[in-house]
């Protein structure tokens, strides 16, 4: 259903498409969304099947290389990634130099940019044009990025709570190790709760890719310049930092806290219908039916509450959803819960501070960003150069400063 825009170039025309909402800028085989039917697939596999049967590292392999790994491939993949979880001592000093209350997402994006200087062999400008035709070189950067991002995130978390940073432990799986680095107590043989590790691992699967969202588009745009993947990830993570992208679950959580109890829901719904407010965590640009990720998150919420204790916000969320989905206003506009409706409550129940929510998203989405980087290395796109529709002044004569009025 897509017209090749080169036809416009032949006619000497260009199309005005504010925010690229109707422009396909690449061909991709990574994820597929049918917003009307509420379908999300990674490489042809339904998200529900992957969430039920797979692990985040297996899904990362699938996204990047196109197929599920064999047992040997998964073993090798996991070993390589876990070997790259350690970060350079100078990176630790760099992270320690941030203000005591630095936003963890600011620390992670800065550390991603700094990684470029720790691994200069990944820099095409220094090494010549063709290093990314070398498969080993490509894979090494993927291992590094997937391995180190959770460690950077854990350091940012420990920094914020004023505690010593923890080293990774390769005795654990990927997500378990991340939880271990957040919480390890110096003397105890701390082992993260396996059910919580699994719940977070599934949440990472759900957030791993979502075709050409804003941060992934940023990743591709940066990739088109030939810059190394750490700088590309910095651009993508910076886009994710924006409240309209990675921060919507925080807004949904704040809304549920503000509503406070199920008795206040009808009055709140009336305000939404009067267009004084938006129901945060509802509605989606692409999904015009139930976001399949939200359905899975709703089940995970039950699991997490069973372990961490029930929080009344889940009752508010469930009742709010029930009332909204039976109300003509929401039905007519195809407004259903999206991925952000339940994720904030789950993160809160797990004990994460709200400013850490986008960091969790960043860990998961790193897999998708790298899959798009990898795909684009194989099918290069010319350096992105969108057109603009100029609507400024006609040519004017320069006026010396003492003659200006
Ligand atoms: N609450 C109340 N009404 C809404 C909502 C909402 N959350 N979302 C859309 N509407 C209404 C609009 O007022 C509009 O009504 P109208 O036709 O009477 O004018 C109609 O539904 C269509 O709204 P649009 O803004 O055109 O829908 P769009 O698809 O462009 O918006 C968006 C999608 C931005 C996500 C919107 O639904 C929204 O603001 N949701 C709340 C914020 C949110 O949860 N964002 C996270 C999205 S998921 C993600 O980014 C990972």
UniProtKB/TrEMBL annotation:
UniProt KW keywords: Transferase, Tricarboxylic acid cycle
Q: What are this entry's molecular-function GO terms?
A: acyltransferase activity, acyl groups converted into alkyl on transfer
Its BP terms in the Gene Ontology are: monocarboxylic acid metabolic process; tricarboxylic acid cycle
Pathway(s): Carbohydrate metabolism; tricarboxylic acid cycle; isocitrate from oxaloacetate: step 1/2
Q: Does the keyword Transferase apply?
A: yes
Asked if the record carries the keyword Transferase, the reply is yes
Tell me which domain of life the UniProt entry assigns to the organism this sequence originates from: Eukaryota
Could you state one GO cellular component term attached to this entry?
cytoplasm
Q: Which family does it belong to?
A: Belongs to the citrate synthase family.
Protein name in the entry? Citrate synthase
């Amino acid at each position: 259903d897509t017209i090749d825009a080169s036809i416009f170039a032949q006619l000497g025309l260009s199309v005005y498409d504010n925010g690229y909402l109707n422009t396909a800028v690449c061909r991709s085989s990574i994820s597929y969304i049918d917003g009307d039917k509420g379908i999300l697939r990674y490489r042809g596999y339904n998200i529900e099947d992957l969430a039920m049967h797979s692990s985040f590292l297996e899904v990362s392999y699938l996204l990047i290389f196109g197929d599920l790994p064999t047992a040997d491939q998964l073993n090798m993949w996991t070993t390589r990634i876990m070997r790259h979880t350690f970060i350079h001592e100078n990176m630790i000093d760099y992270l320690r130099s941030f203000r005591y209350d630095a936003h963890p997402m600011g620390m992670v994006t800065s550390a991603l940019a700094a990684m470029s200087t720790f691994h200069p062999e990944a820099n095409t400008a220094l090494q010549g044009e063709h290093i990314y035709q070398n498969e080993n070189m490509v894979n090494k950067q993927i291992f590094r990025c997937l391995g180190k991002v959770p460690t950077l995130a854990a350091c940012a978390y420990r920094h914020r709570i004023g505690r010593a940073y923890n080293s990774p432990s390769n005795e654990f799986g990927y997500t378990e190790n991340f939880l271990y680095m957040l919480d390890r107590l110096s003397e105890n043989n701390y082992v993260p709760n396996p059910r919580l590790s699994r719940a977070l691992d599934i949440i990472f699967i759900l957030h791993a890719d979502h075709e050409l969202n804003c941060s992934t588009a940023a990743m591709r745009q940066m990739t088109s310049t030939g810059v190394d993947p750490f700088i590309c990830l910095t651009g993508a993570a910076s886009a994710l930092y924006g409240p309209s992208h990675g921060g919507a679950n925080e807004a949904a959580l704040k809304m549920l806290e503000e509503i406070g109890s199920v008795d206040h829901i009808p009055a709140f719904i009336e305000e939404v219908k009067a267009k004084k407010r938006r129901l945060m965590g509802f509605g989606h640009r692409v999904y015009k039916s139930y976001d399949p990720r939200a359905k899975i998150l709703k089940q995970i919420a039950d699991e997490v509450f069973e372990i961490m204790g029930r929080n009344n916000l889940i009752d508010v969320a469930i009742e709010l959803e029930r009332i909204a989905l039976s109300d003509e206003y929401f039905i007519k506009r195809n407004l259903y819960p999206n991925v952000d409706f339940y994720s904030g409550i789950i993160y809160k129940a797990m004990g994460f501070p709200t400013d850490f929510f986008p960091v969790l998203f960043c860990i998961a989405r790193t897999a998708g960003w790298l899959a798009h980087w990898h795909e684009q290395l194989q099918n290069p796109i010319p350096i992105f150069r969108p057109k603009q529709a100029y609507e400024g002044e006609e040519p004017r004569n320069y006026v010396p400063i003492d003659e200006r009025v």
